[in-house]
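Encode chain A's predicted structure.
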Amino acid sequence: MRLGILGGSFDPVHLGHLVMAEACREQLKLDEVWFVPAGHPPHKTDRELAPAKSRTEMIEFAVAGIPEFQISNIELKKETTSYTVETLEQIAAEDPDRKLFLLIGADSLQDFPNWKQPERIAELATIVAVNRGRQDPPGMEEIEQKLGLDVVDRIRVITMPGIELSSTDIRHRIRSGHSIRFLVPKAVEAYLNEHQVYNPG
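Encoded structure for chain A:
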């Protein structure tokens, strides 16, 4: 089984996440893509995330009817910081026959050498750096200098349509009273309107 792992806070999930997952599914011939919402991500300690229940339910609405897209709550079950290497080790241990692909934005690749145990991550999964549209592909020289050629050989760069969306901007638009129509799936927009996840007060 060829399994893509797409982690993130998904605060909230938006169409850019779905386009990225679909581009990877198609180009890498993945059987499934798992959306893995973070419980306690190490890089987002400066603000409080929306409740895990809300973030998970929004993903459920976003991927409903797409059998290749699944949700894993593996990181939400942890009470400590969620590290990618530990998530991959657990998924690999559950079924050693899975071939894992870690899906990340190409802009995150330069920081990859600073992740916890990046060499081990590269052993566990092919690292897929997803480039948006016409952006320049990420350079590998610095990664090779820091981590070696073996890690670079485990990195693939693919391109998705150039959709410039961010969860930060969507939260800002909601709090400012601006439309998020066509930025998130319609069911997610309805959920946000009903539950007022990001509205102050």
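The mean pLDDT is 93.
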